[in-house]
Records
---
Amino acid sequence: MPTQMSGGAVPIGDAVEPREPQKTGSLLGSLSFTQLYVLVLIVVFSASGLVCLEDVAFVLLSSVYIFIVSKVAFPATSATSRVRAFGKTRLFTLYVGTGGVVGLLLPLAYIFGGFVEGDKKGVEAAAPHVYLLSCQVFLEGLSYALEFSLPARAMVPVFYNTKRIFTILDWLRADFWKQTADLDLPSSASSSAAVLWLRFGRALAVANLVFWSFNLFCFLIPVYLPKAFRIYHQKKTTDAITKEE
């Protein structure tokens, strides 16, 4: 999966802006391969029954709210609609890639492995995080394609990262309460394989909690969000002065 995830502020949707929209005349043509990929994941998870109505309602209501904010509180102008908060550096790209692996690729592998290992509880616990992260990536790309202002786009990773902290905590609790007896393993499977699987799931849940907590409390809130508002108002003020002249 490409390291350029979307239009927000750090991995998988929180930091690197998506590609510039193609002149195709369609909304889908403005989305990158990553956004289309996660759209497929969203449909699959929604149809699988692994996502609760609360998470679906959060996605719908937050999308409506961000749309309203983008039109009323922080309307985009020609000077603010395509503004980027951060440039591309090697360290930043590494951070983005780490988020993609820890937040999406490994949890997806864990879910697919859970079906093989008969780990129904693990699949049910990890699925909400993957679903919400997929929705975040897609909404960030969509908000950029629709030329929302930077503050409106910045709200997407903040909202979703905050929500996903709670789903990761649920995942963490489920995996630490789970025992090898809860796995529906084939008779030929060894007990050591079951123990390794449990340890992998717990380590992955802990890694996601640490990474996304750091992303929210050490980057999005203290760094990215203030910078997004500052850039927006600077650009808006400069644009107003230029028009007056």
Note: The chain has a mean pLDDT of 83.
---
Amino acid sequence: MFKSLACLFALATAAIAAPALQVEVPAPPPPGFNITSLGVLGTGCPPGSTYYVLNADKTAVTVTFSEFYAEAGPGIPIRNNRKACQLTFGVSVPPGFTFGIASVDYRGYYQLDSKVTAQQQSYYYFQGQLVQATSSSLLNGPVDGADYTYRDSFDLVSTVTSPCGQSTVLNVNSDVRVSNSGNSKGSGYLATDSIDTSLSTTFNFQWQTCKS
């Protein structure tokens, strides 16, 4: 089993808030913000394999995993071709503030034979809102074991933002997958677990003030 480097998701704020509210310039992390809960569900994050830590200045929350990988090849069960994880963060947002997603950075490790592909994809949205942000990367073999770094930035006008000054739920749906449909004798592996077998995913927040 190969080990990867950490995967970093950088989340920041931007653009529009709820109707009848005007978003001002970026603000320092406000007092009163907190991650109140974390729910996990999926084949990539079974019970006991995931936890989170909010840093002291409340600018980032780090989630660690230990079983978020996918693989394909002769003798490997089809169920291992894709792993998924849904995270649901309960978020306490202080009055007068909002935050949202501006970019996603993630790193990992992959090994792919010729014509074998791997993909990582994530969706972000706040509960009760229709707008969502999506990031994805596609990797192609042959690659004889390598680290990868990928960044996806979002349009700051249409990015996902939390309701202004309201407690909410941030949903993050992610999956990793490997396909050897182009080479049935080939093998591939994609992991977002770190060199100590724990994935480290960090969500960095940048805040905006809201004004009615």
Note: Confidence is low (pLDDT under 50) at residues 1-26, 194-200.
---
Amino acid sequence: MEQQRPQEFILEAFADPTSVRDVVRGILHTIFFHRFFPSLAARSREVLDITLPFVDDAELDTMIEKRAAELARDLDAERTHSHNHSGPSAPLHHHLSQQRGGTAVTAVTGSNNGRGNISVQFFERKRRKTWYLRAAYGGGDEEVCWESWTVKVTVAEPRTETERAKVRKAMEQTLLTTAMKIVTCVNSHKDHIPPITTSDTNPFPYQINVNQKDAGWASRMGIY
């Protein structure tokens, strides 16, 4: 029987080098706020003057912080490499990107940009259906991805006060748009959420990966 494809969502993030970790953490906590099923007290944090939900779980927060820091390092290394091989950075250019969901997302581009992605996958544990699969994989259960989020992150380093103002505005607008898109996605797509069949505190295991190559969902899940 063919494996069911996970529900996939694509998000955008934009930040300057000093804000990228906070922006990424804010987006990931917003995703987990809607997908982390243990009982939690309502918490929130301010990111770029925007109030976002915060999941008050030490293990999850540590994982998010670690992955956000890893992405920030990768982006910094990419921008440094690009700068060393391309000479002085060109001025940033302010423009409107294509319409996304009816909202024009402001972006700022230039040669001193860095791009990366961070992804979140949620899994359910299923009993392997046949004895030979249980024997081949050394156990009776497998983890099957039922939902995947990919955050495409762009970092721009402003050089002047005018550029800083443009980047700040673009960061705020993109973060707000992304937070609202998360809410829309979770409210519009519910049928794919598996039933909770375990008494574990968190019934759905998760993974957070940085700059994962898009090799297709099947290979990412280890099916091929």
Note: Residues 35 and 122 are 8 Å apart (CA to CA).
